[in-house]
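Q: Sequence in, structure out?
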Amino acid sequence: MKLYKLNTHTRGCNKSYDADLVLNPQDHPTAKVGDVVEIYSPEDENGTHLLLQITELNEQSKTGRNVISIESCIATAFKMRSYSNVVMQIVNPADVALDSIEITFKDQYMGRSEMWRLKTYLTNTCVYVNKKIDYNDMQIRCQVYEMWSQGERVASGVITDDTKIVFRSSTSMVYLFLQMSSEMWDFDIHGDLYFEKAVNGFLTELFQKWKKLGCNHEVTIVLFSRTFYAAKSLDEFPAHMRDCLQLDYKGRYYEDFYRVAIQNERNDDWCTVLAQLRKLFTSYQETVLRYHERQHMHIPHATNSTATQGNFLEVLNISLNTFEKHYLDRTFDRTGQLSVVITPGVGVFSVDRELTNITKQRIIDNGVGSDLVCVGEQPLHAVPLLKFHNKDTTLTSADDYSLPHWINLSFYSTNKKIAYSSFIPRIKLPILSAVDETDVEESERNFLSCNQSEYIHNSLFDYDAYDEQIFQPLPAQSTCSLQRVVRAKKTSVPSFETYAYRNNDWENLTPTKIPSLRRKMSDPDIHHGTSGMLAALTDATNLSESLASEKNARRTIVSIAPIVRPGRALINPFDPSHVTIKLTSNRRRWTHIFPKGPTGVLIQQHHYQAVPAKATPAANYSRQLQHSTSSNNNCNANNNNENDYNNAAAGEQYDQVSTHSLMSLSKSIASQQFVMGEEKVDFFKRRHNSLLTATAAAANVPNLTATQAKSYLWGATGEQEWTPAITTENGNATGKHMKPIVEVDHSNFGSSPLEATTPEAVGKGKIIIGVDWKSLSIPACLPITTDYFPDKRSLHNDYVISDYTLLPDDVNLDYARSRAVYRKPLSTEEVCKEIVSQRLAQGFQLIVVEEKPSASNGCCSTSGPGCALTSNQCSTVLPPSAETRKEYLLSIGRIFHKISLTGSVITVTGYRPRHPYPPINVDYRYRFHAPQHETYEISGVNFTTEKLENFNWNHMDLYICTRGDVDYPLMDSLKYWRFRMYLLPRENMVNKIVSFGSQRCDIFTDAVVDNTREQIDDFVRLIENVSKLKRQIGRKARGLTNSPFRERVGSNRLPEKRPSINVRSKLEASRISRIFPGTDAAAAAAASNAAAGVIPRDDQDDGFPVDIKFSANITLAEIFEAMKHPITGVGYFTQTQSLPSCTFVSYDALLWLKARLSNGRHPLDILEAMRKEHMICHASGDWSKPIIAGFVFYYVVQQDKNAKDYAPPLNDYSAFVNEWLEIEFQGCSFLWHDEPSPSEVPNFLRDTTAPQSWKTKRVYRQSHLEIDVNQKSDRMEWGHVKHHTVMQPGFAFELVVEWVTSSGPIVSDLISGWMRKAIHCSYQLVSVPADPMAEPFTKKSDPLRGPIFIPLCVTFLPDGAALFDEFPEESRADRMLFLQEAILARFGFLPCVLEETNKDLPKEYQYVHCTGNMFALIRCASNKNQVESPSRQEANVTRCVYGHTNNTNVPKKVGFLWAWNHMIPNKKWKALTINNSENGELFQLKMLKDFREFCSNSDQRLANFWANCQELKRKSKKFEYNNNNNDDSKNI
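A: Exactly. Output:
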């Protein structure tokens, strides 16, 4: 074995040492780039082997003979010493292929389509633990966390097409819900309160793990509980309570409370939060139970519910309402969503069936992780367990249970030891009390009679049950072999014929199996079997005798009822494995996040496995082992747990093929070993792998898609059979002799795999279900691949098939002709990839099917990433020139899409269920108390299942084909991503409060300097920058005189690639001469001006380089000529696609004219006259567009059409506005036309009030946006920008970026570029939520967010006089609005203009603070709106205002709604800490406190403000003639 000397190098220090591995090409003549080599120390052959890939082989990087060099960090990690001898050999990548790999990333947004692209990028590369991956094309940074190969964790390996990649995010949106049920105040076996166990135990450990892993989650912590009231009717409640009461199925009144402790926060250290939670805990129960108490008022007795009776599903849905709107308030610094419920219970919940169905469907469809952490002790039955409300009160009715596979369960237990005992009680004894005998009977009867889950009524006819009956094999057949027994155990209803008679198993037929015969028609996922059911009951007398003699039988259960209609088995939580269900895509949604254990099945790392400990006859062996195989992964994982995974095997295990038993036997044999965490056990590994492959090959097992697979009901994967051993510490106590293997040596298994050991050899394991810390610290994102596809029969019977074809080349050809602006169209292959990307982004998963043997007709084989099928078909079937073909299968829920690309044709085939689930809608009311709120406010929300089959994919695909053409606009229903921003002027007053600790915050109107001109100029610069426009540049003066264009003075404030306009009023002479040196330019200008009849003048008023005044009688043509002048004219933009030559903006032209007109002529009139004379025209070439002042493009019509740089206009207005941002300027016309100075009198005291905001027909306009400005992406990226049509100084200007075909990091790049440019231009670009106020009952908002109501004192006048008494009544409501607006202006709020959505509602005015940190809203109560609208939104505000009442007859309180901007990054939010303040008070909280004080007239502040305004009015009486001015909304 050849040895090499090992050197180390640091990357980047030398160009030839830029790879992980550098070697001498002469030593390795056969090596080529891409080869994988194995490096290890010869002394330690069984130690860690490092795999690296040769990424470059160049002659320069000679390391010397027989020397190799690896990157120093890798050498350190793999404990390889410099200058030691190592073995290096080239290995076959297939031998070191990884089964799965986990990749973590932080502080970035990675969409699902980016994950797919990253997977493709990583395929066929070599990785090692902690390797940092930089995918520059997509701007993605991530790191390798863990890898699994052949059933064990490895340190390095090669990613192949089949490797499952799991993405885990250490910056997720995490909701932690603490269930404050009555058990929180109970003590556990160690004498701790369960609350202490949850907070001092679990949360403390969790936060430590976050810190260790460097997580930076955005966390919301909510305490929640349900209060029951002892009342029989609504009349027993006082009026103020009735609004929020709900009635449960037993007729009990209850109310749900949510206390938000922390909202959307990020912390480096969360320990401070624990103290806050403890503080809340002390008063929580009393506050909630006594919340409604008032003096002299009787309230029904309130009690806190138990965990089982609590609002568990409602909590999950509340988080889902936020999570499913992830595309609305997209942030670029986090990915992933997780909701964790921490309960003092044991994982059993009493729930409503309908709500369960909604929750299940939403959690699965949205791909959200839902973890349940129980701090109670683990019970003796399968959990989590949902017990359905039993609305049937007859004696024979059995309880129905569900075992949700979509909740990931963890049990938290402390490590405390009790000196006298190692026994852990698993049940809580009830408190002794005298109970009526009948109650006991009822509760006993209800306890065990059990029933199944997962319901959604699907079809009126139970096809599966019918088929089962038709295809049931005859009982007398002699082929009852191993396979038969296995199947008997696995049928969905324990078919008594096969199960009981054949196995002589009557003694095992516990009473609980009887109710299981009484079945209801239900969830399509449950497998229905009717055969043998009636036969089993024919001998009812024997049956009841045997039941009576059963030693465990309880007297109350033996009531054998007649069979109710056949349809579905009920579940027994103490033995749930007798129910199996059809395998569905829902069941397999999360499986690809689990690593494959040594058993060949997927494992969940926080669960232990049980194996049989009793020698069994070979025939039964397979069944029993099977039993053990799957139980390793014992509990429901959803998001990030390693559990939903086993079904790869399930396909074969439950298939009706003759090779069934062989296959499952080999899997079982392999399953006798298990790796738990760090401990690795090697047990016949090589041998088993070969055995597995041999049997599989011999059996020629059909691929998964062809099987009608079944799976167990319990457990996330459905492959594992629940046994009591899973939940007990020592398996010997149970009848099944199962043992948990944790750290047990496998050598006691005898030489033959078919020998098992005696119970004595069984080792003692640790606790069974632990805490899934990985899932709770770095939650996994929904995997991009899955492996379930229905079989042909099922597709034909249960699905409706629709298809359409796309011909991107033809479509693009048509659109390229009609499109005004040429853009490179997408190739057919790019369109196909983008169509797949869009489906992934909307939650679809690629279905990875196993390799099929080539079928006839030359159908292509499966290979390539994500099941892209590529093959060159045999020439016998097709001509050799046949095009390669790709096919992708995708699924979400019960919707499957097949996308196939053949040549230039893309075919999209959709399969949607023939019997879709009916839409369900649950209306839910609750009370919540958010931070800084003073009360528990009422809110309501709807929980609904989304009809995924209604998504308009055809529209989306055409949108992609046409590259976002205006014919296919983005619609709300397409769930496109958006990022909303306000452009706000930078405000210096904030520093006064933050840095100098100003006591008062109403100081924002103190500055009287009018900087409108600066604001507008900066705005123009910024928009030019964003639009990528350049002025015609000629930095050298000589070039200027020859050029037909002139250069606009370049700004020296912006060191960008493009100089930008800087029309400053104070432009120093030195700067002018620097750009137009000396006399040449001046002389040339004077000569040309003399011809045009213009008089030179001295003052440089508007910043144009050479300024002159026009004589009073100058003609329009002369002005036009002067405008066109290359040096002294208006100044054009450089040639840009879709802009005609000689283009300028009207704002420039108006300022240019203002500087030159002397006789009071209006510049706008002159431009309009020029347009009418056809001298100038809108730059789109549309003559009908009048001149609008602002950043609006016009061009000179009369120019030389033969000039080489002449460009004609588009002559298509709609295409033009789709390309360019055009923005009208209002409220600043005094800049280009002298107007009387505005009045000093505040608007609310004027005789005639000024209009409230800018007037325009359209508030928003949309334009196309090129997103990949730095051309980094390997994907065609584009989007749209929606913006205000009007800019008015003193108002917030809104921009929304919208996209579907772009990558998160690339969009983020673009926007952060804009934000930097805005700062250069004295603005700030602040991200804002889609629904800033988040009012209760609104659809888009977070249910746990709400505005704070701040009442305004209106009784501060002496003698209680009413405000505005001196004015006519009809104007008073408006005046009140203007008074509120004036108060907001004092505190630094700017108005935001919004589209009017509902004409019936009272008008609303929204404001944003100049820092962007908070919003305010005023609801106008003008007379025409005095009649209350019945809409929910209106009703809610009254509630917001009063906290307790929905009585619309109460007179309205005047006040403000205040809300925080949760889109501000946490660091930026916390940066505004006031200097020298106690406890580091935040500026935002100080603002709120001071605003509240001002509005409540503390220290007579409001009264003084009123008096000052009245004084201003008195002073201005003498100036009444100029009192009416339209333009003073900000000079209040």
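The longest strand covers residues 253-265.
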